[in-house]
Amino acid sequence: MPRFTTGDIACLKDFNWKGRTDEERSVLTALNPGHDMGRASAHPCIVLKTDRRYALVTTVSAHGSGPYDQWRSPWTRGGHYKKRPDRYRSFEGTARFNPERPYLRLSKGAWPKPRGSWVNVENVLLVPVWFLGVFYKAQGYDENPYIPHMARESLDDLLWQIIEDNWQWSRLLRRFEELRGVKPFPPPSPATPVSPPPRAPAKSSPPPQAPTKVSPPPPGASTKVTPPPPAPSWADVAKGKKR
After folding, report:
1. Which residue, 78, 72, 79, is CA-closest to 95?
2. Which residue of 85, 117, 126, 211 could cross-link 75, Cys pair, CB 3.0 to 4.6 Å?
3. Predicted structure pTM score
4. In the chain, at which residue ranges do the beta strands (DSSP E only) sit?
5. C-alpha closest to that of 43 among 126, 110, 133, 128
């Protein structure tokens, strides 16, 4: 299985493949509540973020268009397609809704449907990397196998719109980080030198205290140094106060 990186074009494997286990389907469904993974699967996808175990991806689809309908754009089909038509981003050669937004481009490779390649920025999925396969239908793959890749500026532009317009993005990104085992504030490694906090005064050198007022010795008293008497008890202190 190839190791995909951010910006690569992969292909979601078939969710309904007869060899797919119920456990695998349950994992995919649990990671993407509210999505029909059967319909999303078997589509090319852009890898937005990935590590060794999971990936955040967005699919590329023709949304049922083709030569038979002159590659009709999805927002002209009515129904749920016409809601927020600006959420659809178009690759170069495909009809676009907002001419102010630049076309998306590949830095390497070409789509098999250059007139029908749209990205819905609200359709982002969190999948295990084992659910990603090679996009064999890319133009020229049969003669020279390769992995298509997004142009850097197109990937950045697409990510910015996903961050702005996909209300699920923050939750998906947080879940991705949790699955990676990343903690918000990891403890420092014991081997990493850190500045120690200020030392507390040693017990053998207590901080100076105000001296206790004592009566001077009477004249003629012996000045011989004697060991200090034991610490007075509370009863002795109380008696001394009564004097």
Report:
1. 72
2. 85
3. 0.73
4. 9-12, 44-50, 54-61, 88-90, 106-108, 118-128, 132-134, 149-150
5. 133
Distance (Å, whole) CA 215 – CA 217: 6
Residue where the block lists tokens 């007022």: 213
CA geometry: angle 59, 60, 64, nearest 5 deg: 115
Q: What is the DSSP string of 93-121?
A: TS--S-TTSPPB-EEE---S-TTS-EEEE
> Each residue's pLDDT tens digit in the chain (243 positions)?
678 999 999 999 999 888 899 999 999 999 999 899 998 999 999 999 999 899 999 999 999 999 999 999 999 987 767 778 999 999 999 999 999 999 999 998 899 999 999 999 999 999 999 999 999 999 999 999 999 999 999 999 999 999 999 999 999 999 999 998 644 434 334 444 444 445 444 444 455 455 455 555 555 555 555 555 555 554 454 455 444
